[in-house]
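Exercise 7. Predict the joint structure of the components listed below.
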Amino acid sequence: MTSPIQKNLVEKNAGYASHFTKGDLALPPAKHYLILTCMDARIDPAAAFGIDLGDAHVIRNAGASARDGQRSIIISEQLLGTKEIILIKHTGCGMLTFSNEDAHGLVKKNLGPSAAVEIATLDFLPFSNLEDAVREDIAYLRKSATVPEDVVISGWIYEVETGKVRQVV
Amino acid sequence: MTSPIQKNLVEKNAGYASHFTKGDLALPPAKHYLILTCMDARIDPAAAFGIDLGDAHVIRNAGASARDGQRSIIISEQLLGTKEIILIKHTGCGMLTFSNEDAHGLVKKNLGPSAAVEIATLDFLPFSNLEDAVREDIAYLRKSATVPEDVVISGWIYEVETGKVRQVV
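Solution:
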């Protein structure tokens, strides 16, 4: 059975594909950078951050966590040649609204003991201060031996209220 | 010092923000679903998959790995109310081109022994068959106690050559 969400995907994609002209782009990002941002529904990275198709890797997870993105960042840089990281967290992030304890409690309550056991050691990586979280993630990237020293790194905040980015570090 | 990539971000974002009218969207995705896809530079999820701003979480990592996305998926569902998962891998994925051994070897060669030690236990999650990888990730999601049984799950492949999606499972 097709859900309304799946139907929307199929219909909108048919429209997209009917005008698609960029079938010959190369696998490695043409502008050799990656953007790491949040999964938040209010962010459209291509439009808001000016990424043309084929130009950059876009990694997205809850909170734009650099730690969570480590595997993808290494693959982006070591296997596909990116040389710059743009980290963008955002105002109103869900990660500001709960603690690890809250999340583990919710999983146990909603999903039961087997789910709680499955993720017993999982760090949900919430944070309590947005700008500090940007600084900490940038520090993590700069300290990690897996990110070469010549990789350019900057940290930003996107305002979901205004559509504007501002640089933090 | 501002890099050309950072300059592009600032300039393109100023244009985006100058026409921005969606500053009052709610934090939870309005259409209660999440898309999990690859970080690949040739994918523009909003355009190709028909996502309007505010409608869906978008999780992206190397290879669209469900396992790698687990933390974000739990947060999306348990804290922000999403009820459907659309998993989309794609043709020409970089994850089809190397093995775990290759990646670990490359890290050691390019970044040295301290980087190799830092990620000694990291699984890069490559795969050798695209459709099988979609099926395996869907099976992983269906099996995980952290994904409720009433969550609708489907698996797709996006063709970077044509801009088209097709359903696998």
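Discussion. Chain A touches chain B through 93 residues (CB under 8 Å).
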